[in-house]
Amino acid sequence: MSELKKTTMFGGAAILLVALALLTVPRRAVPEDFSDVGETFFSEFTDPATATSLEVVEFDEDTAAAATFRVTNRNGLWTIPSHHDYPADGKERLANTAAGVIAITKDDFRSDNVTDHESFGVIDPLDQSVSTLRGRGRRVTFKGASEQVLADLIIGGRVEGRPGYNFVRVPDQNRVYAARTDINISTRFNDWIETNLLGVERDDVKRTVLNEYEIDERTGAVRRRGEFIVDWVEDYEWTANDVPAGMEVDYVQMNLLVGGIMGLEIVGVRPKPEGLSGNLRQAFEERTITNADLQTMQSRGFYPTQAGDMLSNEGELLVRTEESVLYTLRFGEILYGSGNAVAIGDETSDDEETGVGENRYVLITAEFDPSGLPEPSRPSNRDFENKAEGQWTDADRENKERADLYAQWERRTETGQRRAEELSTRFAKWYYVISAGSYNRVHKTREDFLKEIEEEDEEPVEPPA
Predict the structure, then answer these.
(1) How far apart are CA 86 and CA 272, in angstroms?
(2) Which terminus, N or C, of the chain has the lesser number of Cβ atoms within 10 Å?
């Protein structure tokens, strides 16, 4: 055998041995359980704007029941179906929450054993096949157009030693991950609605009226005390009718009242009976109000009259704004309770005195009050429009000034009427439940706004030299 053949044979054998060595050397295997770590949970859900609804289900171990909160967009109108389809201010919050869910990644695989679900707190709160009440998580579901599911997660307990991390599971899967979930998924009613219910700012309020009266609930008789009318003058001054000698309006208390009006805290809503959402007089004439409707309203402190008025057993507060929108807040009965029992209402929460949380029913209406924007004098003529300004007479200048003031009045009137109509539509279908704190800040008597006139300190007289 020639030297070349020997060399070639030995070289081929060496290559074969190296190949065998590479094929048989031990490798570090990547367990299948960890193959998806670092990935997002829903790779096709990338645009928060595609989400048109959010549903959050939480389990209450004390009542052994699941509570559902949902906000959705129907034909361009955001509503809260779980709260009687009350209008929601939800677009921005929904998009932000969806963006947070999109960003959740499978940071760490923990288990694919069903028996671990309870300890991780990721049992589906809607799963009725599981008998245990413990270990149920919060289920968060986003849907898009045509009810397409975009994301569906069960967020469980916190991961010890890792702030901002929770155990997370997809409902139809056993696998549990640790994931950063420090996002704001709120189910508080107040977080999804317009919190400034009347939509007023501090400088908007120009008049308040306390309409004080009492109703004998047995006979229906009304004992009226009268109206206490308070008008704004300037920053630290209010004036009122029927002020006793030696007394004046306490501007501090008035400013606190305005703050209470701005921060009216809604804790629940109820839909009005259909016959009570429009013209009361017409409803009585057409008999669209039933005895059951009347009994329900009276049990909550409200008394519709056949003349088309509405009375309440705790009196009224009227608020007029710079736009001449006149709000009327009618205060009714106490509603005890807290949480969803107050926010949504159930068969017992409106009737039983539980001793917890003395909330208060309130009815709100809005209308345009033309007396708040008196019509100014019209110009006697508009000759100035056909002249150069340098040719105007004193009468022309006066007519121009009147024309400007009248045009300004027309714009303000139109704005006020439009605003009053929008608010009237908002309030027409609902009566509200406000917190005891809000009620105490806005439900006052005239004595609360009066104080003794403070004498101004006289300048000290210097003694003679």
Answers:
(1) 12
(2) C
DSSP 259-274: HHHHT--EEEEEEPPG
The token pair that represents 233 in the structure block: 């003058």
Given a contact cutoff of 8 angstroms between Cβ atoms, the answer to whether 431 and 267 are in contact is: no
Backbone angles phi, psi at 196, to 5 degrees: -85, 85
327 Ramachandran zone, left/alpha/beta (phi>0; psi -120 to 50): beta
For residue 303, list its beta bridge partners: 311
**Residue 167 CB neighbour total at 10 angstroms:** 25
**Among 258, 265, 268, residue whose Cα is nearest residue 300:** 268
Below-50 pLDDT ranges, the chain: 4, 18, 22-30, 347-348, 351-355, 458, 463-465
pLDDT in tens, 136-179: 999 999 999 888 999 999 999 999 999 999 999 999 999 999 99
**Residue type at 202 in one-letter notation:** R
CA torsion, ordered 15, 16, 22, 25, to nearest 10 deg: -130
DSSP 431: E
Q: Are 33 and 112 in contact (CB under 8 A)?
A: yes
Residue type, 196: N
CA distance 328 to 437: 19
Q: What is d(CA 372, CA 376) in angstroms, rounded to the nearest whole number?
A: 12
Separation CA 433–CA 265 (nearest Å): 9
Cα–Cα distance for residue pair 139/92, rounded to 1 Å: 21
CA dist., res. 345 & res. 338, Å (int): 10
Of 365, 358, 308, 309, nearest in space to 334 by CA: 358
User: Is the sign of the CA dihedral 203, 209, 214, 219 positive or negative?
Assistant: negative
In 3D, which of 128, 62, 84 has the Cα closest to residue 346? Answer: 84
CA distance 372 to 413: 10
Q: Token match 């209010």: residue?
A: 238
Tokens for 275, please give them: 């016959």
Residue 411 phi, psi dihedral angles, 5° rounding: -65, -45
